[in-house]
Task: structure prediction
Amino acid sequence: MTLLDQLKKVTKVVADTGDFQSIKAYTPMDGTTNPSLILKAAAQPEYKALVEKAAAKAKAQGGTAAQKMAHAIDETSVAFGLEILKIVPGRVSTEVDARLSFDTQASIDRGRSIIKLYEAAGISKDRILIKIASTWEGIKAAEVLEKEGIHCNLTLLFNLVQAVACAEGGIRLISPFVGRILDWHKANRKVDSIPAAEDPGVLGVTAIYNYYQHHGYKTQIMGASFRNVGEIVELAGCELLTISPDLLKELAASEAHLEAKLTPAKAKAAHVEKIGHDEKSFRWLLNEDAMATEKLAQGIRAFAADLVKLEDLLRPHL
Result:
């Protein structure tokens, strides 16, 4: 069996792409996108008609230029999500505008709006995860949406305090960014590589997994942003892993042996103390983690920058 086939037996594999052909090739259970992936896909000639149709729907809704652009962003994201849902049997994650990461009410409103677009297309909200950045405001927005039966995927998550706040808030799923954690530590330590078993991103997700399992939280973990197959192998057993087409291809080409590194039994046996989860604790502990603070801010800025590029692509159609 290939590494990919073995992985699918212990972990739900999710395609981290907006490219439909790549999703079809590796038969994942779920799909996930973000502003950067949507921009990359929307710029491809084969998806021009999809983008133009989404923009036309947004234009027809009227409103100010800013309102039409917001509609166009969401219509485009949902259009790609709908195509992904034709391929995967499970769920797709669709992201709220990253520029709303510090605005709880606006994030709630956009999450509801995205769900309405999917429901208008005949898709049940059970097949959608609303992606929101793991700021305090984002987590609070997700709590409200979860109570309305709108499930969320908290993204740009880099440390345990973010994960604990999400679990305490009853969030359905979190996406810790393994590779971006590795990037920061390589730069900080001035090294070219770190062995997978010692990878800070791998160790961070392992700590979150053990915390959740040990204390009985139901929030799912979807490891994300991988830089190499070694990171994926070390996290075999995690509930979900979202993987880029290049790494899916590499997994499918290997027949090395795979064992589940993360298991409920190991987590239950570990010594895991609870940590505080109120706003003061959250903000202080996040502030004390230079990596998480920097990568969260950097991630929001990068997604916001790609949203501006996506707006430039859409503007001629509005």
The radius of gyration is 19 Å. Residues 3-317 form a domain with the TIM Barrel fold (CATH 3.20.20.70). The first strand starts at residue 12 and ends at 16.
